[in-house]
Amino acid sequence: MTQASPFLVEPLDASFGAVVTDLKLTELGAREFEKLYDTWLEYALLIFPSQFLNNDEQIAFAKRFGDLEFDLASITNVDKSGQAHFDPNEDWVKSIKGNMGWHCDSTYMPVQAKGAVFTAHTVPSSGGETGWADMRSAYDNLDKKIKKKISGLSAYHSLWYSQSKLGHKPKVGAGYGFHELDPPLRPLVKVHPETGRRSLVIGRHAYGIPGMDPKESQKLLENLVDFACQPPRIYHHTWTAGDAVVWDNRRLLHQGRPWDMTEPRVMYHARIAGDPETEFAAHA
Question: If you average pLDDT over residues 269-276, what whole number do you get?
Fold first, then answer.
C-alpha cells in the first residue's frame, strides 16, 4: 500500500486498478480531485468501498471527469413494486446477458465514451461481479507479428450486431444504441489521448474488418479478446453495497457476471462522454 495524500491507494493484483480509501468522494476539493484524476489515469480503474453515494451525488462525482453521455441508468432486476423478477424474454434480461461479454461502452456510437462511474446499492448473495480487462497491457504483450498485422486495421462496431448474435433483435429506436446510423469504424489500435499509450479497441461489438474475409475477421477479433482477457490483465470485483468505481473506457474492456435473478441486484451507471476530437469514429 502506498500513501498518496490525501488518500490511500492499494494496487490490485493485476496490471491495472487500485482500491482507494481514506477519502469521501462528496467532499473532495479541487486539488484532491486533481490528484485523484491523475491516479485514475495511472490505474484506469479505481474502487471506492463504503461510499454509499445517492443518485445526485453519483452524477455530481461523474461530472467532475467531464460532460456526461447520460446522467444515470439503473441496471436492476427489481420492478416498480420492489420485487426481483426474471423473464428471459424481456429486453432488459437480453441486454444484461449481452453485457456479460467483454466490451467497451459506446464504441457503437459516433463518439466512444470516456469512462463510467458505477455504484452498488443492492447486491445478491453471490455472483453478479463486474470484470475489467486491460487493453493497454494486452497490446504491449502482443507478439510483434500480430502487432504488425493489426497495425492500420479497423473494425465496425454495432450493438445490433452483438445482440443479434444472442438472438436479441429489438426494433430500431427500441433502446440506446439501436439506431439507423451507419456502424462506426474504429482502429484496432488506438493512442490514449491523455497518456499517449497504445491500447486495443476490441470486444463483442467489433466485427467486419474491411478487406478481410468475414470468417478470418471474426477469428482474429476473437483471438485478440481471448489473448487480452487473461491474467494478469483481468480483475473481477465482488460488490458490496455502498461500493463505487470509476473506470477508463478508453483503456479497459468490462463484463458483467451471472447471478440468480430471483435475488435483487440494484446498480447505477453514469457514463462520461468522450471528447469528439479524440473519440469520434470514421464511417465507411
Answer: 97
Alpha helices in the chain (DSSP H): 30-43, 55-63, 91-98, 135-140, 144-150, 159-164, 214-228, 276-279
Q: Given this model, what pLDDT does residue 176 score?
A: 61
- Of 220, 190, 192, give the one whose Cα is nearest residue 207: 220
- Nearest C-alpha neighbor of 112 from the set 225, 199, 39: 199
Nearest to 251 by CA among 209, 199, 210, 191: 199
Residue 237 inside a domain? The answer is yes
Q: Domain residues for 60? A: 2-273
Q: Could you tell me if residue 159 is inside a domain? A: yes
What is the domain-level CATH number for residue 145? 3.60.130.10
List strand residue ranges (DSSP E) for the chain, in order: 2-4, 7-11, 18-21, 45-48, 68-76, 115-122, 130-134, 154-157, 185-187, 189-191, 198-200, 206-207, 234-237, 244-248, 252-256, 266-272
Which H/E stretch holds residue 24?
Answer: none
Compute CA 20 distance to the chain's CA centroid, rounded to the nearest angstrom. Answer: 19
State phi, psi for 261 to the nearest 5 degrees. Answer: -75, 5
Residue 254 lies in a domain: yes
CB 88 within 8 A of CB 230: no
Structure-block grid coordinates of residue 47: 474502487
For 266: left if phi > 0, alpha if psi spans -120 to 50, otherwise beta; the answer is beta
Query: Looking at residue 284, what is its pLDDT?
Result: 41
201 and 189 Cβ atoms separated by less than 8 Å: yes
How many alpha carbons lie under 13 Å from residue 119 in its C-beta half-sphere?
20
Rounded to whole angstroms, the Cα distance separating 83 from 36 reads 37
Q: Could you tell me if residue 211 is inside a domain? A: yes
Share of the chain above pLDDT 90, in %: 80
The residue count of the chain comes to 284
